[in-house]
Design a protein that fits this description.
alpha+beta; globular
């Protein structure tokens, strides 16, 4: 009897060991399997000819950058800030035929707007952004790019580097900055894209300076930016997820916002690096 039980236990252990080995083998090979699978899908899609140059993605992507250079009146001078913005939205007039280039790469274009010298609290700064910042120049990924990006996103999900299953929507962890000090501030307004009167957006922001932070507010129009510049008093959406204070990384969702809404981002005038990058991701909820 005891002998039979020992045999049974030994058999179960062997069976469990084999399953563990198979699982371990599969996890080691998954990073090889996924690219091969992407190639097969790409090859099959290529057989349909024109389908290769259409997009399976449901929403439009609007990508642009805003470059800010602080003049001597700022404590942050001569620092520069680069806002890298991705706005994904539901365009009812979208064409499934896509551009052949990603308009976030402006290296082949000379049609930047001219430099604009502007002021906040009598402190001058130069702002430069290219004309693709409007919502009329969105793009969609071609099928082959979508497949490759999707595979990369799945790998990053497994590795824990990505938090959202949508290939082009980035979500960041909420990381507070605990050592904020009194300072003057710089404000930037980032508008949304939508053709609806009322919509909802999820968004994420991060700053790559470990010694700085940002405040972010969803506001109903650029008028609130103007109000902040004049008096530092402004209205914003107060629902949970519509604002964050003293963060280095933040994600939220704001519902029932107006068509002219956008993000008001406020950063302290304490930058000491030559270039600070702030990544801003906006995604209109389906």
């Amino acid at each position: 009897m005891i002998h039979s039980k020992l045999i049974y236990i030994f058999w179960k252990l062997c069976h469990y060991y084999k399953i563990s080995q198979i699982f371990y083998f599969f996890m080691r090979k998954i990073f090889l399997i996924l690219p091969v699978l992407a190639f097969i899908i790409l090859l099959m899609n290529g057989l349909y000819g024109h389908s290769l140059f259409t997009s399976p993605y449901d929403q439009d992507i609007n990508k642009y950058s805003i470059y800010v250079h602080f003049q001597d009146e700022w404590d942050s001078s001569p620092s520069n800030v680069l806002f890298e913005i991705t706005n994904i939205w539901s365009n009812s007039n979208s064409n499934n035929q896509v551009y052949s280039t990603d308009f976030s790469n402006v290296s082949n274009f000379d049609n930047y707007n001219s430099n604009n010298l502007q002021f906040q609290d009598n402190r001058g700064y130069v702002e430069l952004k290219h004309q693709f910042s409007d919502c009329n120049s969105s793009w969609k990924p071609m099928s082959y790019r979508y497949v490759i990006d999707s595979v990369r996103n799945q790998i990053e999900l497994i590795q824990g580097k990505e938090l959202h299953s949508d290939t082009y929507v980035s979500i960041f962890p909420n990381i507070k900055f605990s050592d904020s000090t009194e300072s003057n501030f710089y404000a930037q307004f980032i508008p949304i894209c939508t053709d609806k009167k009322i919509t909802s957006y999820e968004y994420s922001i991060s700053i790559d300076d470990d010694n700085s932070w940002f405040d972010v507010y969803f506001v109903n129009s650029k008028k609130q930016f103007d109000n902040y510049i004049i008096s530092q008093n402004f209205d914003f959406y107060v629902d949970n997820g519509c604002f964050g204070k003293n963060y280095q990384s933040f994600s939220g969702t704001c519902t029932n916002i107006d068509k002219e809404s956008g993000l008001l981002i406020i950063i302290p005038d304490n930058l000491n690096r030559s270039l600070i990058k702030i990544e801003v991701n906006l995604h209109e909820k389906l």
